[in-house]
Amino acid sequence: MSPLPDGLRSAVTALAARPKVVIATDFDGVLAPLVHDPMASRALPGTIESLEGLAALPATYAAVVSGRDLATLTQRLLRIPAFARIADARSAVLRSARPQRHIETINELLRMAPWVTGVKTGHTFGALYVLVGSGRRRGTELISVAIGAPTDEDRFNDNIELLDYGFAQYKPRRPIRRGAALADPSIEYAGGELPLRAARGITVGVRPDQRLAVAVRAPREVEGPIRRGAALGTATVFVDGLRAGRVPLRAGRAVPKAFLADRVRSFLDDEPIPVAIAVFAILMGVFLLWRLLRRGDEGEDEMAGREEMRAKRERQRDGGPVK
Q1: Which of 45, 140, 280, 282 fits a 20 to 30 Å CA distance from 72?
Q2: pTM score, two decimals?
């Protein structure tokens, strides 16, 4: 790491000596490299961790400045659970303050409808009254942005109208229902199939021109022991190719461990031709062994007969009695 120039070092030292410090940094070109497509930009390794470390220091506040549009920023930020909870809060307690303070939101949009989930008010002399709103209704989540509203009240009313209009364009669809069997892998050795059921349902809002699809990832074959309710796959809902939700698939019943008899029976059922060939080979081997033993017995009998005939001839030659 290269040393800081003397002038910059003095400025940083003077800044750090202040009782409270606010550190604001740009994202593009500072935390992330400049790229042609801003939405494809990603933070450099370690930069986010450094910013979080600064924010964790006493009396130190960190902020990121961005030139991206408000709707895109909100969409990204609402994926962060902590941000989503703060944006949806009607009130909060500042426990870091001494004494603690109870504050109320100035975002009146949160009180205008129960389905509103945020997000942020703002005002500048150029943009006038600004409000980024969001809501969730019947499986649909929307973001609204009002800029240039002449009054505080106008920006709230504009957002309500925008969200109402947006929700009217969507119809709720339930592509996955809780407990529905979405896969049925075969059970190795024991035979049969194991139903894999959705752990919960998914409801999404879909416009008439959008395409809804469900992708299931599950094994084709399973082997016991498996407890009932074990997660063995997933089902993902896509709207126009974008993921809208995912649920685990769980075993619909228990599967016991396969015993040796099950494995043997399964092998006989699954491999009839090799088994038949093996049985045929064994039978042929037994038959050939029998023939060999039989020929041996016949050879011994033949040799015994020859010996008896030879003995008779010798007795005849010697003039003895012939039996």
Answers
A1: 45
A2: 0.63
pLDDT, averaged across the chain: 86
Q: CA nearest 83: which of 20, 132, 32, 129?
A: 132
Number of domains in the chain: 2
What the block records as the tokens of 235 is 């089902």
Q: What is the DSSP letter of 28?
A: B
In a domain, 118, yes or no: no
Residue 152 forms part of a structural domain: no
Residues of the chain under the 70 pLDDT cut: 1-2, 259-272, 274-276, 278-280, 296-307, 311-323
| HEC string for 172-197 | EEEEECCCCEEECCEECCCCCECCEE
Cβ burial 281-307 (10 Å sphere, 16+ → b, else e):
eeeeeeeeeeeeeeeeeeeeeeeeeee
Tokens of 49: 């961790």
Question: Is residue 160 one of the residues assigned to a domain?
Answer: no
**What is the chain's Cα-based Rg?**
41
Residues present in the chain in total: 323
Residue 132's DSSP bridge partners are: 120, 145
Domain of residue 210, residue span? 180-259
